[in-house]
Amino acid sequence: MERVGGYAFTIGVPHPDPNRVPDPISIVRASDNSVSIHVTGSVPSAKDPADAGKLAGFTVLSPSYLPFGYTAMSDWYVTPQGTGTDVTNGYRDTGNYFLILNQWKLGGGDLKTYAREQIVDVTVRGQPGVWLPDPSVPEGKEALVWEENGITYSLLSNSLPLDELLKVAESLGR
Within the chain, how many helices (H) and strands (E) appear? Predict the structure, then answer.
């Protein structure tokens, strides 16, 4: 098992957890060339990272670099995650491709465990992290995950390679 911030990853075939409570925020494909963020229930949001940080109680970082064609698809959503707080913002290109940025300040005892077919150790912003290249995951989401200053960061995408996600990660807060 490999632990990064609030996540633990094990090698194995991903299986749905029947006890997992669905996240209030999810990615929805509206059509073959459209993707959006779907919010269930009342979720506080902010127009910019500074206001999201005020709602979350920690400094929220925004990327200064996005891959060509990617633009914001939503506000900054602030939701409880375990006993901590998660801030989510999404980006999309002109088609069916997305990039999701999550910033999770852990609460006591917070831990989410996922099985992945492959876990690759990487360094992100000078911190140890993992690259999870796993196209067998529903919707083909691959992830880059690391922890920095008590915040667990994850970048999820259904199209971007590791080098592009690292560029986005390196640009956070700059």
Answer: 2, 14
